[in-house]
Amino acid sequence: MKTVGKDRPPLLTIRDLRIEGKSTNGWTRLVDGVDLDLARGEVLGLIGESGAGKSTLGLAAMGFTRDGCRITSGSIGFDGIDLARCGEHVRRDFRGKRIAYVAQSAAASFNPAHKLIDQHCEAPVVKKVMPRAKAEAEAVELYRKMRLPQPEGIGFRYPHQVSGGQLQRAMTAMAMACKPDLIIFDEPTTALDVTTQIEVLASIRDIVEQFGTAAIYISHDLAVVAQMADRIMVLKNGRTVETAETRTMLSAPQEEYTKSLWAVRSLERPRQERGTGARPVMSLKNVDAGYGAAKVLEDVSFDIHCGQTVAVVGESGSGKSTAARVISGILKPSRGEVLFEGRKLPADYLSRSREDLRHVQMIYQMPDTALNPRQSIRDIIGRPVEFYLGLKGREKEQRIRALLEQIELDPAIYMDRRPTELSGGQKQRIGIARALAAEPKFIICDEVTSALDQLVAAGILALLARVQKERDLALMFITHDLATVKAVADEVVVMQHGRVVETGAVETVFANPAHAYTTHLLQSVPEMDPDWLTRRTMSNRAVPA
Amino acid sequence: MGRIWILVGERLALGVITLLVVSALIFVGVELLPGDLAQEILGQSATPETVAAFRHELGLDQPAIQRYFHWLLGAVQGDFGTSLANNRPISELLSVRLGNTLFLAAFAATVSIPLALTLGILAALYRNSIFDRLCNVVALIWVSLPEFFVAYVLILFLAVRVALFPSLSNIDPGMPFGELVYRSFLPALTLVLVVMAHMMRMTRAAIINVLASPYIEMARLKGMSRLRVILYHALPNALAPIINVVALNLAYLVVGVVVVEVVFVYPGLGQLFVDAVTHRDVMVVQSVGLLFAAAYILLNLIADVLSIVTNPRLMGERR
Hints:
Protein name (chain A): ABC transporter
Helix content of chain B: over 70%
Membrane topology (chain A): Peripheral membrane protein
Structural class of chain A: alpha/beta
CATH class of the largest domain in chain A: Alpha Beta
Pfam families (chain A): ABC_tran, oligo_HPY
CATH class of chain B: Mainly Alpha
Strand content of chain B: under 5%
CATH superfamily of chain B: MetI-like
Shape of chain A: globular
Largest sheet of chain B: none
Number of helices of chain A: 22
Number of domains of chain A: 2
Family (chain A): Belongs to the ABC transporter superfamily.
Oligomer: heterodimer
Strand order of the largest sheet of chain A: 6-7-8-3-9-10
Number of helices of chain B: 15
Mean pLDDT of chain A: 88
CATH architecture of the largest domain in chain A: 3-Layer(aba) Sandwich
CATH topology of the largest domain in chain A: Rossmann fold
GO molecular function (chain A): ATP binding; ATP hydrolysis activity
C-alpha cells in the first residue's frame, strides 16, 4: 500500500459530469453529476453494481463515450485540458499515449488476427513515441516485469495461444507501452479464477507502483478494490454515494448503501444436521468421463443428501460442470455409475423414465441464454408443469401462479411477459421456478449467481435456501466463488484436474483444509483487509507453490 | 503447415467425387432432352431408316450407360471426343472458347473486385452517411435489373447513342491486347455492374459486424484513427466472408456469363454452350457443363483454403 500524499499534483479533475445513453424511450442518465479528483500516481477504486455507471465514468476519463452515449454537461480536466470540449484529434492523441485502458476480457479485447507484440507496439509506433525496435525491446522488458513466462517469445504468439490470465497481464503491459500518466482498469480480473486472479492483481499492483502511474480501478468486488486502491468511490445509479480513503471506507462506511454492500459478504448459513445413515438422494460412484480422448473426470465419487446443499468448487477446467452433465445424463461416463436414491440411473437421459428426469432439474449460469426469448413466462414455466405433472387448463394456471408467488414475482404482472422484459435477477428467478415446476428432489445449480450483482445474488441465494427448506430439496451447487460456498453449503467437494481432492463439511474443510490445493484455493480468495495481497504474495514468494 | 495440405487434398478428392456426380447428372439431363442430333441434322422429312443409320454412325444407338463411360473415360484423359455437329475435336473447340471466357472474367474481376472492396470499406467507414446510402442504392439498382437489360441499356447509351464501344464483341485471340480490351469493354462493364453489389455489400456487412467486437473498442481506446481501425483491426477479421463472396462471384463470372455472351455475341464458353444445346450437340454440352462445374468447385476450394490461411486461429499450431 502506498502512502497517500495530499501534496501530489492533480492529474484528473472531473466536475459535475453528466452522460446520457440512448434507450428505447429517449435518453437515460448513466452518469448524473459526478465529481472526481485524481492526483498523479494515485489509485482510485470505483465500485458499484452493474448499471451504476462505473465503466461509463471510467471511459469518460479518457474522453470516450460508447456509441449511443453523449456527454451532456460537465468537464473532464486532464492535465489542464478539458477532454469534454477539446477536439477529437486531441483526445485521440491522448488515448494510448497518456491515458491507457485495460479491458475486462483480455481474450475478447486482443485482436485475434495479430500477434501480441504487434498490438503492443502499435500505439508507440503509430504515435511516434518510439521506433519499432525500441518498442519491442521495452515490450519484452514489460512482459518480464509482469512475470509472464518466456518474455522474449510470448509476444510472438497470437492471443488464442495464450491463457486468460497471461493475456490480462499482456494487456496491462500493453497499456504501459507509452508510459501513460493514467490507466483505466475496467474489471481486469473478473473473468479469472481466484488462483489466477491473485497473480494478476499482484503484478498489476507492482507495475503501477513501479512507474508511479495513476489509475482508476473499476470492480464490483470490494475485496479486490481494497487491495489495489488508495481511495474508494462508491457509485449507484450514476451518482457518487461516498468517497473515502480505503481503510476508512472499509472500517467505517457512512452510507446505508455502502453498508449493505459490505453486509452481503458476511452471509452465513445456519448449520444443518444431516440425518446419519440416511440414503443419499444422489450419488456419483467412481465416475470417469471425458470428451473424445480428453479425460475430464477421473474416479469422481460424492453423495448428496436430502435437504442438503453440496458445493462443488474448483477452477475452470476442473470438471465441475462435467460432473453435472454426467448426473443429468447429457454425457455418458466411461466408467462408474450415477445412483438416485440408491438406484442406478441409465447413463443416457434418453433411456431414463420421465419420473427419473423429473427429479433431476437444473438451473443455469446465464439466465439470458437459458430462457427462450420468444416464449412468455407462462409458457416457460407451464411447459414442465404440463410435461412432468400432466396438469392442464385451470390446474396448470394455478400451479404457475403458485410458482411465481413462491419466487416472489407477482403473477398478475409477470405471467405474460417475455424474458427480455425482466432484469437479470428476475430472469434467474424464472429459471428457479422452471426447475421447481417439476417438483424435483434434486437440483443442480451451475454458477447460478456468478452473472449477478452481489445484492441480487444474495436475494437469489436466500430464495434458494427458503425453497430448499420448504421442500427438503437436495442441491448441488457448482461455483468458483468460495464466499458463496460459505453462505449456502453444508458440504463441499473440492475438485482439481478432474479429481476430487477433498470433501467434507464446509466448516471443517475451510478451517482445516487437508489438501494443499484446498489451502491454495482458500488463500487465493481476496479478503477485505487491504494488506491481504501484500501478505499473500510475500508468503507465496517465501514458499513457492 | 502440414494440416493445410491435408485439407487441400481432402477437398480436391471431394471435388473429384462431386465432379463425377455432376457428370452423371449432366449426362442424364442431356439424355432427357427431346430429339437428338440425328433428328436435328436430317430434319423432319427424313425416313426412320436414314435416321437409324445416321444414329448408328454417330454411335447414338449404343446404350446410355456405355456411352456415358466411354465419354467419361475420354474426358479423364483430356479427350472430350469430337463435336457431333462439325466433327472437330471438342478439346480444341473448348480451349479457344475457355480462353476467351477467362479473359472476359479476368477483365471484369480486375475492375470489380478492387472497386467493390474499396467501396465496401469506405461505406463501412462512413456508414449511414450519404455516401454509404448512395453506394447501397446504386449497387442495389444494378443488381436488381436482369443482366440482359443492363447489357441493352449499355449498348443503347455507349454504342448506339454515343458510339464509344462496339456492341458486338467479336474477338479473336490473335488481336493486340488493347483491341481485346476495347472490344470486350461492354460485356465486361455489364458483368462488373452485376457482380459489384454483392461483393460491396458483403464487405460492408462483414466489417460492420466485426466493428461491434471488444477489440475494436480497444483499438479506438488506443487512439487509433478510424481508417486504421477499419483496415488493420476490422478487415483481417472480416476476410473469411469477403473471400467467399468474391469466390462465388468469380465463379459466376466464369459460369454465369451465358446471357451476357449471347447478347454481345462474345465467342466464349457460354455462347458455345447455347449453340450446342440448340444443335443437340450433346458431347459439347456435356463437356462445357463439366468445365463449368470444375471451375465452380475449384474456386470454392481456393476460397476455403484462403479463409483458413488468413485466420491465425485456424492456421497456428495448437498450444
